[in-house]
Each structure stands twice: as C-alpha cells, then as structure tokens.
Design a protein that fits this description.
With 264 residues, the chain is α+β, with helices and mostly antiparallel strands. Helices cover 37% and strands 28% of the residues. Strands 1, 4, 7, 8, 10, 11, 12 and 13 form an 8-stranded mixed beta sheet that branches. The longest helix has 41 residues.
C-alpha cells in the first residue's frame, strides 16, 4: 500500500473509534503497569514470609550459626546433647561433700571381760601383719602429726585345731605426753575386753555404706573423749580418743572407712 492510500484510509475512520482508542490506550499505559507492580511486590512478600516460617531462616541466607539446622544435627538430638553437657558441667562444678558423723551425748560406756580357753598357740605380728590377718584396712590414713603408734607387736591366739580364738587387739597412737591419743580396737572373736554403749537408742551415721554409731562423753578431767563403733568386712571396730578435736577424730574414723571402700 502506498503512503497516499494509507493516509486516505485513515481519514475515512469514524472519529468516535479514534477517540475510544486514545482513551483506552491511555488507561493501558498508565494503570496496568502500576497494578502489575503492586501485585508482584505482594507476591514476593508473601512468598518470603512463607519460606521464612517453613525453613527457619534458610530463605534469608541460612540458619543462625550454632543452631541444630546449621550443624546438621536433628533438634531432638541436639537438645539431648545440651542436657547431657549441662549435667556434666553441674557434676564437675559440684564440690564433693566431706563425710560427717552424728555424735550422741552419752554419760557412760560398758566394759566386759570375756572368759575363754587359753590359746594353744600365740602368733606375734606387727601392725602390717595384723592388717593382713584381718584383710581390711585397720591403720588410719589420717592422723594428727604429733601422734605415733606406741606398740610394735600384736598377738593372735589359736586353739589346737588352728582356729583363731583371740584376735582382740588395740592399736594405740599417742603424743609424747600421752595426754592426746587415738585407739583403734579390732577383733573378729568374742574375747578379751569388749567396749559397748550403755544406751540402745542412739542415732547412727552412714559413711561409705557402713552404719557408724558415734558419741561424745566426758571421762573425768579429759572432757574431749569420742568413740565410734562399726563393722567392716566381718571386723568389729571400736575407735576411741582422748583430748582430740571432733574434726581430728572424724577424719581418722572416715579415713578407715574410705580406705576400705577404695580397696587400699
């Protein structure tokens, strides 16, 4: 088509159609891009919010550092690991409590001498030999520095059949003046001199799984006297002190029990 023909054809168009085309064109050029832009922005916002809730931050550049998602560990396993870690820290930080003894206040003790047949044979042993005989620790692991063992030999009596009938022995630790002392009495036989509590309703303590009966009493001018009785490994212990502090006596008694528990 020639240019003259095109111009002539345009001139014959109804003016009403030209006006409607101009008004419609303006609406398309102005309104459509604005609504399309708003719709696109809204779609992006909704999509971002959904991804954020669904993946916990992965759409925004990855999970926070140190989170279970970032480490690749399932959340339930991470929670259990944190709980175990906290328990380990609490356990390591908690100081170990020192053993304690309940001391009853008493006025007297009972002493009994057991009549027995004369041993057919008496074996003399040192402190280490006596401990080997009883097969449990009988030498205190903790003592005041000024106390030392006063005897070097101890006796075990046997009958004609070779059975021990008298193994009642005392290990006496004392200072140079003999005013401060600790005595550890040990036996498995009902023989010799036996010390007992006159009261039967005394409170007891549990140390290293062993029931201990302990008391404080006055012995004339020697006011600070303590006694503790317990049985360990079939051996009856009677531990007594004169003019020792409660702390020193407690430490000596507990050292016997702790050594037995650890197998030393």
């Amino acid at each position: 088509m020639r240019l003259d023909d095109l111009v002539d054809a345009i001139g014959k168009i109804n003016p009403r159609y030209v006006k409607e085309a101009e008004e419609g064109g303006k609406k398309k050029r102005i309104s459509a891009p604005v609504w399309l832009s708003l719709a696109a922005c809204l779609a992006l916002v909704l999509t971002g919010s959904y991804l954020g809730l669904r993946f916990g931050g992965e759409a925004g550049g990855g999970a926070p550092e140190g989170s279970p998602a970032a480490s690749g560990v399932p959340e339930n396993q991470a929670a259990e690991a944190d709980a175990v870690s906290d328990e380990a820290i609490d356990g390591a930080a908690a100081p170990e409590e020192a053993p304690e003894l309940i001391y009853n206040e008493i006025r007297e003790l009972e002493y009994m001498i057991v009549d027995m047949e004369a041993p057919a044979r008496i074996e003399q042993v040192d402190a280490e030999g006596l401990e080997a005989y009883f097969a449990v620790p009988i030498l205190p692991g903790v003592l005041p520095e000024d106390l030392s063992l006063q005897a070097e030999e101890f006796a075990i009596g046997y009958n004609e059949e070779g059975a021990a009938i008298d193994d009642n022995n005392e290990l006496l630790y004392a200072d140079a003046s003999k005013e401060r002392s600790l005595t550890v009495g040990v036996r498995t036989t009902e023989s010799g001199e036996i010390t007992r509590f006159a009261d039967s309703d005394l409170e007891t303590s549990e140390v290293c799984g062993v029931e201990v009966t302990a008391a404080h009493y006055r012995n004339g001018e020697k006011e600070d006297c303590y006694i503790a009785q317990f049985e360990r490994g079939g051996v009856m212990f009677t531990v007594q002190s004169e003019n020792l502090s409660e702390d020193d006596f407690t430490a000596a008694v507990c050292s016997l029990l702790e050594q037995a528990e650890s197998g030393n």
